[in-house]
Write a structure and sequence with these properties.
CATH topology of the largest domain in chain C: Ribosomal Protein S8, Chain: A, domain 1
Helix content of chain C: 10-25%
Helix content of chain A: 25-40%
CATH class of the largest domain in chain C: Alpha Beta
Number of helices of chain C: 5
Distance between the termini of chain C: 39 Å
Strand order of the largest sheet of chain A: 1-2-3-5-4
CATH topology of chain A: Ribosomal Protein S5, domain 2
CATH superfamily of chain A: GHMP Kinase, N-terminal domain
Number of domains of chain A: 1
Strand content of chain C: 25-35%
Order of helices and strands of chain C: EEEEEEEEEEEEEHHHEEHH
Oligomer: heterotrimer
Number of strands of chain A: 11
Low-confidence stretches of chain C: none
CATH superfamily of the largest domain in chain C: K Homology domain, type 1
Mean pLDDT of chain C: 90
Chains: A alpha+beta (about 250), B alpha+beta (about 290), C alpha+beta (about 240)
Structural class of chain C: alpha+beta
Shape of chain C: globular
Low-confidence stretches of chain A: 206-222
Number of strands of chain C: 15
CATH class of chain A: Alpha Beta
Largest sheet of chain C: 6 strands, antiparallel
Number of helices of chain A: 5
Distance between the termini of chain A: 36 Å
Largest sheet of chain A: 5 strands, mixed
Mean pLDDT of chain A: 85
Shape of chain A: globular
Structural class of chain A: alpha+beta
Largest interface: A-C, 41 and 35 residues
CATH architecture of chain A: 2-Layer Sandwich
Number of domains of chain C: 3
């Protein structure tokens, strides 16, 4: 299951760490702060996302990931509440699962997708640790479809390499689909199956405890991903309210 | 461009008065470091250093490339530091601030030019293939003490890192995976660390490991990089107010002591981590396959 | 009175959680952290504890994290950044737009006899207005009475950072009963000092000497960071006084 901490950093307004499936990401949010004139929006807050990879300075892949996260956050943050300001989100990948630390001289053509759920979750958690108003929260699920056409949740690096398609889906707290990114060969029906499963993982459905047989799962904890968010917030509030325990 | 907020006149006056009385805001002595905490990830070569509120993670990675044409027998070692808004809203990503340039230069000289890591040892096939090692320094939290923390973090990560074992037979290079042969430690020739001094009262008083506010109220800075053997690798006084030469020499003396102290903390952390990993290691020794 | 329901942004507040007003003609007041979508949906926009006040028929989300955002009527500590013809431009929090403090917004100030503040001066002021569309405006006196009421330039002393939650507790009328703060009372028995608490998480302390001021500051900061209860605060103060 995911490992989360809120407010591990002192200087940033809000921060969080999120570790799952070999990925460990630190996110920091600063805002609302002063914005540069050229980025200023008259009626809304500007949202800026910076992604730092674990090793190296980052290139095209990081820019693409930043853009996905930035567009998602713009929907989640109530940008009209703080016009002419900047909300700055910085993401740092600390570790990844394929941490060979030895790379060939040719850059690997690995996919962007596997790190995206951790990036999205970390940024949401960091936002929750600030007082920036949000219209919803978000949870992300990562599903692979293997050669036997079964769905694999939280696939390992090997499973991703051998999968026929991989999918990232992020849902809002209301159950609406916010982000979809898919790679590989798949049919619409298969995607629909992936969609249903991902929705179940993130959002949960009342009374639907049945497991369909063609889903293989690594983790035995099927609790809604949304509970991860709530749990992190509860722990933080409990820490802040320690002094209150002694008041009758 | 955002800049760190300057302390108010009251705060500055108070801090200077306190220093005059040899008192620091957090109760430390003038020559004491903040609490230093070092931890490691599961993978080799990632060191997480916390010095008070400052936090730095350095990560070592390696790849095989052709050597530089003017240094055919040496491997390549690069250190990158990029300050991001994670550490402080005053840092802008994509723009190299003065602090970053200063930091890069100090680390470049104390760790790279001092040959702490033997670049000769990184050579695999002379003139054709060498290891290119990268140290990526990520500053997560900034409250002063940046140079000291980054140097600690990078040196610790280098000492912690294990590079794949290799062998060359007739010009053919074989790189062994961790399953075939255990990765080996790097050839580190000596352990330089940096100690930063910030001075006050026209160079009469100095303190070690300044917090951000102490740094902002100080007149100037002196950085000494040295190893536990007592050899000085770098002595830098970058502008700022005047300082008596004898006070400067005293700083170097204090630095030598501090480097030994800090070095012991690093040794301790590495030992504890080795023990933690070795729990599995003992059982590996008992396996039937052994080196003949 | 506060009930401990934790809400996340996007959660709708169900009507059975809403307070039952003792006075039925009193309209429901939505405090910070809640958004009203007509006709009758109330959603949370912050992560925090849902608080209900039966008497005032008010409901809000308690959230003390993140960056301070200026609210009208808040008392804050600001640093003067620079001055222009008629105003001082002050920083309430770092990296945000400067707030404006009219040079005459002090007790008894006229064009000839106004206080001269320099860059770096510290002021204790009240937020007069703050909206998302304009820069915040400050005053260092009460416009209706003309009195400073403790506001104005602060000379000497030292500023200590505390969390926004702690600042809020310190500003309560009944610090000990509602905010669980006894530390200042305990210190005051042995050490004389002055404090000015800013809702923006800054506390100004002035005492006899450096050691005394640091004692008060450290007592506050440790109470805050360790979440000490009233008893523990007493122990902390005793320990600090012994160390003096």
């Amino acid at each position: 299951m995911a490992d989360t901490t809120l407010l591990p950093l002192h200087r940033a307004d809000g921060s969080a760490t999120y570790s799952k499936n070999g990925y460990s990401v630190v996110a920091a949010v600063n805002g609302p702060i002063e914005v540069q004139r050229r980025d200023e929006l008259p009626e809304e807050a500007a949202v800026d996302v910076v992604l730092r990879p674990a090793a190296g300075v980052g290139g095209l892949r990081e820019r693409h990931l930043e853009s996905v996260v930035q567009h998602t956050l713009r929907h989640v943050i109530l940008v009209s509440a703080h016009p002419r300001t900047l909300i700055q989100c910085t993401l740092q990948i600390v570790t990844g699962p394929e941490d060979d630390s030895v790379t060939c001289s040719l850059p690997q053509a690995a996919s962007d997708l596997p790190v995206l759920p951790a990036l999205l979750q970390a940024s949401i958690l960091a936002l929750l640790s600030t007082s920036i108003p949000l219209s919803m929260t978000l949870t992300a699920a990562f599903v692979a479809v293997n050669s036997k056409d079964t769905l694999v949740l939280d696939p390992s690096v090997q499973q991703i390499k051998r999968a026929s398609s991989i999918h990232l889906l992020a849902f809002s707290s209301r159950g609406d689909l916010l982000v979809v990114e898919s790679e590989g060969d798949f049919t619409i029906d298969k995607w629909e199956e992936v969609h249903q499963k991902a929705k179940l993982i993130c959002h949960g459905e009342e009374g639907d405890e049945s497991e369909s047989e063609d889903v293989s799962m690594k983790s035995d904890d099927i609790s809604k991903l949304e509970n991860v968010l709530k749990d992190a917030v509860e722990r933080q509030i409990a820490k802040e309210q320690r002094w209150n325990q002694t008041i009758g | 461009m955002p800049r760190e907020a300057e302390p108010s006149f009251n705060e500055r006056a108070f801090l200077l008065q306190a220093v005059q009385d040899n008192i620091r805001l957090d109760g430390r002595a003038l020559d004491t470091y903040r609490n230093l905490d070092i931890s490691f990830a599961d993978n080799f070569g990632i060191a997480d250093v916390r010095l008070g509120k400052t936090r730095v993670i350095t990560r070592i990675s390696a790849s095989i490339t052709a050597p530089r044409h003017d240094r055919k027998l040496d491997g390549i070692f690069t250190i990158t530091t990029e300050l991001s808004p994670l550490a402080s809203p005053a840092f802008e990503s994509g723009r190299q601030s003065d602090l970053e340039t200063h930091l890069s230069r100090i680390l470049e000289i104390s760790l790279r030019r001092s040959q702490a890591l033997s670049t000769e040892s990184l050579c695999l096939v002379a003139g054709q293939k060498v290891w290119s090692l990268r140290a990526d320094i990520h500053v997560l939290d900034y409250d002063g003490g940046l140079i000291d923390a980054c140097c600690l973090s990078t040196l610790t990560a280098l000492r912690h890192y294990r590079i794949p074992d290799t062998s060359v037979k007739g010009g053919e290079l074989t790189v062994y995976t961790p399953l075939e042969r255990d990765p080996v430690p790097l050839a580190i020739l000596h352990h330089p660390l940096c100690v930063t001094f910030n001075f006050f009262e026209l160079g009469e008083k100095w303190l070690v490991d300044a917090t951000l506010m102490e740094q902002q109220c100080s007149e100037g800075e002196v950085v000494v990089a040295a190893n536990p053997q007592g050899e000085v690798c770098l002595l830098q006084k970058g502008g700022g107010g005047e300082m008596d030469a004898l006070v400067l020499l005293r700083c170097v003396e204090v630095a030598l002591g501090k480097v030994r102290e800090l070095g012991k903390v690093v040794d301790g952390a590495l030992e504890r981590d080795a023990k933690r990993r070795d729990k599995g290691g003992k059982s590996r020794e008992l396996r039937a396959e052994n080196e003949r | 009175m506060a009930t401990q329901t934790i809400v996340l942004p996007g959660e709708a507040i169900s009507s059975d959680v809403l307070p039952i007003p003792s006075n039925p003609s009193l309209a429901l007041k939505l405090g910070p952290g809640l958004r009203h979508t007509p006709p009758s949906t109330i959603t949370s926009v912050l992560a925090g504890t849902l608080c209900i006040d039966q008497r005032k028929n008010a409901i809000w989300v308690e959230n003390n994290s993140g960056r301070y955002v200026p609210q009208p009527n808040d008392l804050i500590l600001a640093t003067v950044h620079h001055s222009s013809t008629d105003w001082y431009h002050c920083a309430i929090t770092p990296h945000t737009t400067l707030a404006q403090l009219p040079q005459l917004a002090f007790e008894g100030a006229t064009k000839k006899t106004r206080p001269q503040l320099n860059s770096g001066s510290l002021v204790y002021a009240r937020v007069l207005s703050a909206s998302k569309h304009s820069d915040p405006e400050l005053v260092c006196y009460n416009p209706s009475t003309g009195k400073s009421e403790g506001m104005g330039e602060l000379k000497g002393g030292m500023v200590f950072d505390v969390s926004l939650g702690m600042a809020r507790r310190l500003l309560l009328a009944r610090q000990r009963e509602e905010g669980g703060i006894a530390v200042l009372e305990e210190v005051a028995e042995k050490v004389a000092f002055e404090v000015a608490v800013g809702r923006n998480g800054k506390v100004w302390v002035k005492s006899g000497g450096v050691k005394e001021t640091l004692l008060v500051g450290r007592a506050l900061q440790e109470t805050d960071s360790e979440g000490l209860g009233v008893q523990e605060q007493g122990k902390l103060v005793k320990k600090l006084l012994r160390g003096m």
